Request: fold
Amino acid sequence: GENVEQHPSTLSVQEGDSAVIKCTYSDSASNYFPWYKQELGKGPQLIIDIRSNVGEKKDQRIAVTLNKTAKHFSLHITETQPEDSAVYFCAARLSGNTPLVFGKGTRLSVIA
Amino acid sequence: NAGVTQTPKFQVLKTGQSMTLQCAQDMNHNSMYWYRQDPGMGLRLIYYSASEGTTDKGEVPNGYNVSRLNKREFSLRLESAAPSQTSVYFCASRATEQPQHFGDGTRLSIL
Reply:
């Protein structure tokens, strides 16, 4: 089955700097790659996603890139703010009703 | 906009007690999921229901049972709770080929 590895497990950046979180997946048939943000005491919330027919997607300060050949995808957050501090999860999925497989998460701390 | 609603939010059980965690969604989603979240382990799938009337095991199903009561509701049952089941449990749902939405979790402690 699918396996998703996520790095780093913790990341500290200064406010205003960029943050990058990387994930690799094992099943070349996976075609959907979402990123979730989880704040303390809350459930994960989708922040951006990308499908395998697209190489990059942006939404304001966040972007996701996908390299299908290398089977890895990354989350980029620019101009980080203290409210970006949270745990971020990547995930991968085959098409249809197959479940998402999640990475183990990255705890991002943005230092003011 | 309720989305995915989980009850209860917190629960403390004694070893050997039974309990059912409830989940309901109001988005007319076909698929529903139960995950557990433990420190350093990410989100691990316990059971899922791809559509009303079907359920399937995920990565960590032992010690749990599920019921897809109708399209809206998907419950998770612990028949004989064990300390290893202390965790935060999340329910999620989605429509086919659409993003997955999570509830805010049930924090379960087993003494």
In short: Chain B has a mean pLDDT of 95. DSSP finds no helices and eleven strands in chain B. Residues 86 and 109 of chain B are 5 Å apart (CA to CA). The two ends of chain B are 35 Å apart (CA to CA).
